[in-house]
Amino acid sequence: MLDAANRHFDHLPNRPGVGYKPQHYSDILADPGPVDWLEIHAENYMGDGGRPLAQLRHLAERFPISVHGVGLSIGGESPLDPDHLARLKHLVSWLNPASFSEHLAWSTHDSHFLNDLLPLPYTARTLDRVARHIDQVQDTVGRRMLLENPSTYLAFSDNEMSEIEFLSGIVQRTGCGLLLDVNNVFVSATNQQTDPVGYINAFPMADVGEIHLGGHDEDQDDHGAPLLIDSHGREVVDPVWALYAHTIEVAGPRPTLIEWDNDVPDWLTLAAEAARADGVLTRVAA
Amino acid sequence: MSVGQSEFTQAILDPDLAVPPGLTDPQGRPAGKRFSVYRNNVAVSLTEALETAYPVVRKLVGEEFFRAMAGVYLRQHPPTSAVMMHYGARLPAFLENFEPVRSIGYLPDMARLERALRQSYHAADAAPIDPAILQTMPPDRLMAARLRLAPTVRLIRSTWPIHAVWLANTTSGAPKPEMVAEDVLVTRPGFDPKPQRLGAGAGNFVEMISGDETFGAAIEQAGEDFDLAALLGLLLAGGAITDISEGT
């Protein structure tokens, strides 16, 4: 456990946050600008010590931290990796973060970890499995988790329900909350040729504890249809900002994260993205 | 019945396999390139993880070659854990047997050194002993005592000038490596691992100490040319000694 004298943040504020990158450490401490909280990828803090954990300990005294797992494989057909679950439990109990989230995806099969968020068919059978895994995670980690909607590039011919029906079913079964990634909504809707605004309007907003915004790349599929890739390597595009503004109008202000994981820019560029989210949050709240 | 994750995984790792049926575009046509996005994500992210772990190996073989080699490695040895800071543990052994680099004899040991640096970086913090304890202990008691080394300490013993080659590839103006065997000790003063070349006998000494042998036994094994003061200076400066215990 961190020092009991430290401030403890028990929730993320309805304000902008950014994905924390070690190269921004000094800049953040000197002047965080509009950034009021930070998110880390859980797996990057599963070492035994050294600079990563020391920096995190220091940042956690000043900022609410969101622990965002990228490797638990909640949608996996295999049982959850008990070692990984134990590492998560250890990190969460040590840091006592303001929020913990993971993905509706799978990444591990037969002990092979593929380091990507792979897609799931939306069937009753998958829903049952995912719900059992989320129950197991929440029981082990000892707190409510948020589940993030994925970016998808293809469809399963045997889908039995929509993504929103699936996510709502999971929330109903497990009591977990949701992390709404608005860029993922835009990417998936483009790739699946559905309506992103309709998706937002149908989303169970009462359960949304956090929003993600990130950049994507543009490509085309074999038939020349647009194919967007969730790359987190550039600015959030204007149509995603518009969809975000709509989301905040529908849902009210929510903690909003700028994700920029590849070709990470300097701090001012990242802070400018957070300032843009701040503008939307402030305008809607006014 | 959906495409299973077993079939999906095989097709991700083997680009020669067909895209599993049941994966489609919005019109129900075969997924084709859409599946390749996942294949590409997996290969690129694992390649990047190896590049992060082995920057000097990458520099030695060149970026293009490293990526091609990573493509072979990641399919033979996909990660077994989601903690990517540990990925690539088997690269040194892989390099021993990877035909195209067999002529670069020191490459596997360079990978071992880079792995040692990474492990040291993420190793647990441990408070070093007060150097005065060593300096004031009567010699007979010191000889019978055992030292505990910090979790950040690693020893790499090579028949190649591994430290000199590492230095030449990470530091401008470093001297040209000479063809000698080198033992390298990694310590972590503060947060940044530091590899240092050991003098004669010091590798034996550290190996004995790590094996929980006594100080006296380690000195005996180190031989006549061993400079104890130099090694202790290096260990103490690196915060590498965390405990000294007497008795059995």
Lay out the secondary structure.
The complex is a heterodimer of chains A (286) and B (248).
Chain A: E1 16-19, H1 25-30, E2 37-41, H2 51-60, E3 65-68, H3 82-95, E4 99-103, E5 106-109, E6 112-118, H4 124-141, E7 146-148, E8 155-156, H5 163-174, E9 177-181, H6 182-192, H7 196-202, E10 208-214, E11 217-220, E12 226-229, H8 238-251, E13 256-259, H9 267-285
Parallel strand pairs in A: 1-2, 1-13, 2-3, 3-4, 4-7, 7-9, 9-10, 10-13
Antiparallel strand pairs in A: 5-6, 11-12
Chain B: H1 5-13, E1 23-24, H2 33-53, H3 55-61, H4 63-76, H5 91-97, H6 107-122, H7 131-136, H8 139-144, E2 146-149, E3 154-158, H9 162-170, E4 182-187, E5 194-197, H10 202-210, H11 215-222, H12 228-237, E6 241-245
Antiparallel strand pairs in B: 2-6, 3-4, 4-5
Helix pairs in contact in B: 2-4, 3-4, 3-6, 5-6, 10-11
Brief summary of the model shown:
Chain A is an alpha/beta fold and 286 residues long. Helix content of chain A is 39%, strand content 20%. With 248 residues, chain B is mainly alpha-helical.
Can you walk me through this structure?
The complex is a heterodimer of chains A (about 290) and B (about 250). Chain A has about 290 residues and is α/β, with parallel strands linked by helices. Helix content of chain A is about 40%, strand content about 20%. Chain A has one domain (about 15-285): TIM Barrel (Alpha-Beta Barrel), CATH 3.20.20. Chain A has helices at about 25-30, 50-60, 80-95, 125-140, 165-175, 180-190, 195-200, 240-250, 265-285; strands at about 15-20, 35-40, 65-70, 100-105, 105-110, 110-120, 145-150, 155, 175-180, 210-215, 215-220, 225-230, 255-260. In chain A, the strands form 3 sheets. In chain A, strands 1-2-3-4-7-9-10-13 form an 8-stranded parallel beta barrel. In chain A, strands 5-6 form a two-stranded antiparallel ribbon. In chain A, helix 3 links the parallel strand 3 (about 65-70) and strand 4. Chain A is globular. Chain B has 2 domains: about 1-105, no CATH class; about 125-250, no CATH class. The N and C termini of chain B lie far apart (about 65 Å). Chain B is mainly alpha-helical and about 250 residues long. In chain B, a hairpin with a 6-residue loop joins strand 4 (about 180-185) and strand 5. Chain B has 12 helices and 6 strands. The interface between A and B is large, with 55 and 47 residues.
